[in-house]
Amino acid sequence: MKAHPTSPLAILRSVRRNRGLVFALAEREVLGRYRGSVLGLAWSFFHPLLMLAIYTFVFSVVFEIRWPGGSGSKEEFALLLFSALITFNIFAECVNRAPTLVLGNATYATKIIFPLEILPLVTLLPALFHAAIGLVVWILFYAVSQSALPPLTILLYPVVLLPLVLLSLGLGWFLGSLGVYLRDVAQVTTVCTTMLMFLSPIFYSIQAVPAQFQAAMRANPLTTVVEQGRDVMMWGRLPDWTDWSAVTLASMVAAALGFAWFQKTRKGFADVL
After folding, report:
1. How far is Cα 6 from Cα 262, in angstroms, rounded to an integer?
2. DSSP states of 222-261 as a string?
3. Are 170 and 263 in contact (CB under 8 A)?
4. Which of 52, 85, 125, 130 pairs with 95 at a CA distance of 20 to 30 A?
5. How far apart are CA 242 and CA 248, in angstroms?
């Protein structure tokens, strides 16, 4: 049986070798999601706007949550909330899809020549595409509501996202493999991502969390990415490069371990499926 390389360099080689296939499958994924609908790709604009309106109404109108150090306006709260949701949704979309990556492509798993390791990338690219659309909507809303352009630090947002991308890939490989052997993983993952949405500083600032819980919250890698994404988009602050480096390094390790796990266990996919 063919041995599958597990080194991190094998990831880069596979992406370079199969980049055409990755983009073709990602494009099919995006277009297939809206195929047959009246509005088509326009839903990728309307869905985040609808959720933004609902969350903003619930948290800023019903619960009357105000952001520490902010102006207290509902427009500002909407921008703060939307910026965090753009970041979190990349992670949630990748992780929630991960357990069914191989199961949903069972015909590929039986083909020795198909590079199964690219499947998490095929999920990641549409998630980044929807994040880019959300970012355009956010910038337009910022320009209209604040009568100004966002701070130039927003150009660092892709850099801030790097650890999130690596972590999402690592979990994609790990959960994609585990989901083949344990079908309950998909249900557990959905519950965990919902919990993480409320345990990450999305609807509130980390400063609003009682001091005794802040250390535990900062152990959540999403906390750093969400907070720094909000900083560069809203407040014009540079990322804390020490925290960013630590989270990026941990995410690189997670990605390497997830890829190694996937490559080690994939030889049994065809038998199980």
Report:
1. 8
2. HHHHHHHHHIIIII-PPP-HHHHHHHHHHHHHHHHHHHHH
3. no
4. 52
5. 10
Residue with tokens 């910038």: 139
- Which phi-psi region, left, alpha or beta, contains residue 149 (left: φ > 0; alpha: ψ -120 to 50)? beta
Low-confidence ranges of the chain (pLDDT < 50): 1
Structure confidence at residue 137 (pLDDT) = 86
Q: 208: helix, coil or strand?
A: helix
Rounded CA separation 211/250 (Å): 24
State how far the Cα of 39 lies from the Cα of 35, in Å rounded to an integer.
9
pLDDT of 247: 96
- Distance from C-alpha of 94 to C-alpha of 196, rounded to nearest angstrom: 14
- Cβ-contact 18, 118 below 8 angstroms: yes
Instruction: List Cα–Cα distances, 220 to 164, 171, 196, 250, in angstroms.
Output: 12, 14, 9, 11
Alpha-carbon gap, residue 176 to 174, rounded angstroms: 5
Give the DSSP letter string of 12-43.
HHHHHHTHHHHHHHHHHHHHHHHTT-SSGGGH
pLDDT of 112 reads 63
- Give pTM, 2 decimals: 0.91
Q: Is 67 helix (H, G, I), strand (E, B) or coil?
A: coil
